[in-house]
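Morning run. Coffee first, then this:
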Amino acid sequence: MPNGLRLAGECAAQFWQYQQAATDMAKWLFKEEPEHYSFADLERDGSTLWDGVSNNLARLHLRKVKKGDRIFFYHTGKEKAIVGEMRAVANAWPDPAGADPKAVVVEVKATGRLPMPVPLARIKNDRLLAQWDLVRLSRLSVMPVSEQQWQRVEELAREE
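And here it is:
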């Protein structure tokens, strides 16, 4: 086989591997009380270790987080809104504090604030988001986000 064709084939294979890896990245939503740790705190710090998750279903989700996954930051409490985006810096790993053998942590970094916060009231009234776990399971602090949900939240964040 001519060298050029072999190299082109290798480049194409690498491209498709990259494309597959990009589509394999999951999307998540993490909740936090802004009085405890806000998105502004994360922006100031640059990155943080996401820990303290005790709900079994939330822990199950947190264990699935992989390096590069995109994550919405949701302020709970009085604000109740998606306010920013983070990325997982590494795969989830056992909590280094070691007090609870089932506990896991994920290092995250801030990637940007949404143009406009997307409040829970707006999400509940949106036909595409009304059945989301964010609405149905209000106490769940870590949850998956489908591609359609992610895109819809981004659209709502751009609306006036």
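Residues 3-24 form the longest helix (22 residues). Good start to the day.
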